[in-house]
Design goal:
alpha+beta; single chain; 505 residues; Beta-Lactamase; 17 strands; disordered N terminus
Amino acid sequence: MIHTDFAELSDATLLRQRAEAIFHEYPEQAPVLAKGAQTPQKLRDLGVHQIELELQNEELHTLRLALEASRSRYLDLYDMAPVGYCTLDTHGLILRGNLKAAALLGLPRAALLQRPFSNFIFAEDRCQYTQLHDRLLATRQPQDCDLRMLDGNGLTFWTHLATTFAESEDGAAVLRVVVTDISCRKQAESELRRAASVFTHSGEGIMITSTDGKIIDVNEAFCRITGYSRQEVLEKPPELLKSGSQDDNFYRGLWDALAATGRWCGEVWNRRKSGEMYAALLNVSTVQDGQGNTLQYVALFSDITAIKDHQSHLEHLAHFDALTNLPNRLLLADRLQQAMAHARRRGQLLAVAYLDLDGFKDVNDRYGHDVGDHMLVHLATTMKDTLRVGDTLARIGGDEFVAVLVDLDGIESCGPMLKRLLESAAVPVAMGGIVLRCSISIGVTFFPQTDKMEAEQLLRQADQAMYQAKLLGKNCYQVFDSGHDSRPGARHQSLEGMREQIPLL
């Protein structure tokens, strides 16, 4: 066998030249010639031609091996490709398919042959596929699209189809179709769209900040709640929203929680661009990469100012009288308990005065409840104005009030305050041409006493003393007398005699 460099054998001339060179170099390659004999031209041409044929045979053998190797590689690439390959005739029937195409369509390759490719197109997308097929045949230019397909089990998946016009080995027109499963990409795109929609249309304000404390994005709700536009806050620190209501310890606790758990939730008071303060329910989360490194912080917040105002209103209704806006019985009990504890600590007296209006029922019966309510509001305001800042005046029933007088240096010091209460209630009230007159009867008791006293006991003592004031002619005050608390005809007591009437500590 003769070996040579086939890169040189590009045409017949080179092949002839090479054969002649071999003949002269290796004359023994021509067996028809005798050694040392004179070589006639014909024999010489025959020997060269024989070498030339051998070179051609060797070249053809090498090319055949290379072609088979190339075809094998092509078949390997075709069958093992990560995308589906299908060959269709011009009517759309499947002529050939690779392993991936069979896997995507859920059928063996043999079962795909001669099936219409359109059978595997999702019903709602077949019109789109038909248009692509028609454009390809009309223009013979590559066409592609995204659409949904069905496998042999009826399961739907998203694909990208890339089609080209070609000719088969026998010259027939065929369509090459590349089927790429893009279900994961479509799902990711859908999730991104949902996330973008939530970000854009969420009723909660969303603020994304970088690790160096700069705002990198906000949504529309953020702008609506804060009054800032997106351009005004980008690359700015979130501190522009601070109201000053929270101290540094508050924010240290927030950052400590983020470092420990990756999230923090709570209420804050922030300030709008206009300067108005608002309450926000804030939820801050840390965004990390796969290695646990912090990438961003995401803050979601909602304006709960209306809720806080409503809560405050409900709390006010729970603790204050709806008509007079004075503390009600519930708040009175709390303040009385605090006043008693304060009196014990400081060694001072407090007085509990039970007030009842004289003749108020007649006003209601004669002029109606609207007039009566007006009178109650006027009297409540007037009596409250006579008290000191630390004292409490509460309405505990229709025309009944309780005053808690604190920080008394002695029993005598409450006398002027009781007299002012009597005088304020006796002032006539003018309303729409009507002059209303009223008075009050007051019962008083003091704390602390020799015996252990509870708040309810003090109220009962003051109530009994008020009853005695009613019996003594009204428009006066009566001090509780522990020795005569059950006698309905007990006499009016002066402040000068109170030390003997109530055992005090």
